[in-house]
Amino acid sequence: MVVAIVAVLAGMVGTSFVGSGRAQELEGFAHRMAQRIELARDRALQRNREWGLYLQDDGYEFAEFDESTQTWAPYAQRPFHAEAFSKEVQMEAQVEEYEGQFGAEEEALPDIIFFSSGEVTPFELSIQPIADNEMVWLLASDGFVRVRATRKEP
Predict the structure, then answer these.
(1) What predicted TM-score, i.e. pTM, was given to this entire model?
(2) Which of 56, 78, 109, 133 has its CA 20 to 30 A from that of 29?
């Protein structure tokens, strides 16, 4: 009887650490993503060039707008390289539409644009595991305030 109780307790402790580790990993990813977004905003301001963030099904990519060619050039140097993360995580952005024109008409605009003025298109970016709808991290900006990662409560 004692062995059975110890086995059950050990199983509960083990599974709680596994779930906790996954939650901490997701939290760390959300905070690093918020820092990268702020770095991109700072870089756009310093270089006096527009920057962008593309969100894809399999990850994300930063880009810099080249006025001479009127195209968005991928920018993957540190710290803007895409961080590998589990395929079990999805990112989805809700962004206010931008009326201006950057680049060729057939070229897709980035999901989030960082302007050389220091502003950013207002957005809300959710990061969550596909299997768990209760563990959601939100990154948001109204266009002026710094991006912060906050956990959305269910």
Answers:
(1) 0.76
(2) 109
